[in-house]
């Protein structure tokens, strides 16, 4: 149980998160790996940690 409490504490104390942003149309070369501030939680909201995410080519190119 301590292992999960430690991870939750790490999430609570983090100030930034890693994001992949796309500012223009194109292939993987236009994706930007950046730091972004973690949004403030509003009442009745939760924060979920997503350790891995996969995005398909179809999401980048609507052809």
TrEMBL record:
UniProt-listed InterPro entries: GroES-like_sf (IPR011032)
The organism's place on the tree of life at top rank: Bacteria
The name this protein goes by in its record: Uncharacterized protein
Native organism taxonomy: Bacteria, Pseudomonadati, Bacteroidota, Sphingobacteriia, Sphingobacteriales
């Amino acid at each position: 149980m301590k292992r999960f409490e430690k991870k939750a504490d790490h999430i609570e104390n983090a100030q930034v998160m890693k994001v992949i942003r796309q500012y223009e149309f194109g292939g993987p070369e236009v994706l930007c790996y950046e730091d972004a501030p973690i949004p403030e939680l509003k009442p009745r909201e939760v924060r979920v940690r997503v350790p891995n995410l996969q995005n398909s080519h179809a999401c980048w190119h609507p052809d």
